[in-house]
Specification:
Belongs to the pantothenate synthetase family. This protein is an alpha/beta fold. 38% of the residues lie in helices and 19% in strands. It binds adenosine-5'-triphosphate, pantoate and beta-alanine.
Length: 280
């Protein structure tokens, strides 16, 4: 696997692939890779001749009091895993490369409405950071196809909207959430959990599954079901951030049984913020 650390090296590799007529697949990540990330690479390889991944812990998407500094960085292990999954190249830019003049004067991309809801309301500026870095990575890599996880459901919706609005010639593929045997969505932040917290963590997905059945049974109005589910999260040891029965495309709160729905949730277990979702 090629390890590309500069924009010039990346562009030379992309040029070589283009001259060879290769269809390029791209998997952007923040590293500390797990089976969910490697699944993205596997899927990308099904849709492209070559796959390139990126690892960049993007400071623009972290809030002041978030975990930018402690975010796990495991490059050597990540490179071994990517190589084992047939990734052809890995791009690992630094913040100085991505934001040479600093974040304060950096041009940005913002997806209105979708970026303001749910995690956008809880993490001010987060999705501006995500859409900006992904747009820049798309311009640098210029892939034909890019894979994102459904674990970050709102992020995937925002990327799809950005690609459509800005006419990126890139096919976006959403990959189902990879889960541990007990149902917990794999996430780099799961590594923050203590043993006691990890034992409680599966309750998040279990509560989403129970809520889905209640929605299908039309057990009560959606807002009442949301409140009950948040109470169940608290009883399971979580501090709920949000739990919203939403429209799959607009992500606005759903009210109608006929709408295509997704349950979106974020909750803290100790100091660890977990997210998950379940389509209804
Ligand atoms: N369990 C998973 N299943 C499928 N895709 C996933 C999973 N976890 C992460 N991804 C996807 O991998 C890509 C990179 O995500 P990222 O590097 O932030 O990993 P992460 O596990 O989501 O970390 P974090 O704990 O910061 O959320 C994103 O498209 C994300 O949706
Ligand atoms: C898409 C992404 C790599 C942009 O930094 C990040 O938000 C992530 O890892 O999901
Ligand atoms: N996959 C989530 C990235 C973040 O929380 O910044």
């Amino acid at each position: 696997m090629q390890h590309l650390e500069s924009i010039s090296a990346l562009r030379a590799q992309i040029r070589d692939w283009r001259l060879a007529g290769k269809r390029i697949g791209f998997v952007p990540t923040m590293g500390n890779l797990h089976a969910g990330h490697f699944r993205l690479v596997d899927i990308a390889r099904q849709h492209a001749d070559v796959v390139i991944a990126s690892i960049f812990v993007n400071p623009m998407q972290f809030g002041q009091n978030e975990d930018l500094d402690k975010y796990p960085r495991t490059l050597a292990a990540d490179m071994q895993g990517l190589t084992a999954h047939g990734c052809a190249a890995l791009f690992t830019p630094t913040p100085a490369i991505m934001y040479p003049h600093g974040l304060d004067v950096q041009s940005f991309v913002e997806v209105p409405k979708l970026g303001d809801l749910h995690c956008g309301a809880s993490r001010a500026g987060h999705f501006r950071g995500v859409s900006t870095v992904v747009a820049k990575l798309f311009n640098l890599v210029q892939p034909d196809v890019a894979c994102f996880g459904q674990k970050d459901y709102q992020q995937l919706a925002i990327i799809r909207q950005m690609v459509a609005d800005l006419s990126f010639p890139i096919e976006i593929i959403g990959v189902p959430t990879e889960r541990a045997a007990d149902g917990l969505a794999l996430s780099s932040r799961n590594g923050y959990l203590t043993a006691e917290e990890r034992a409680k963590a599966p309750a998040l997905y279990q509560i989403l599954q129970q809520l889905k059945q209640q929605i299908l049974a039309a057990a009560a109005p959606y807002r009442e079901l949301e409140q009950n589910a948040k109470a169940a999260l608290q009883a399971a040891g979580f501090i709920p951030d949000y739990l919203n029965i939403s429209h799959r495309q607009t992500l606005a709160l759903a009210n109608d049984a006929n709408e295509p729905k997704v349950i979106l949730a974020a909750a803290k277990l100790g100091s660890t913020r977990l997210i998950d979702n379940l389509e209804v």
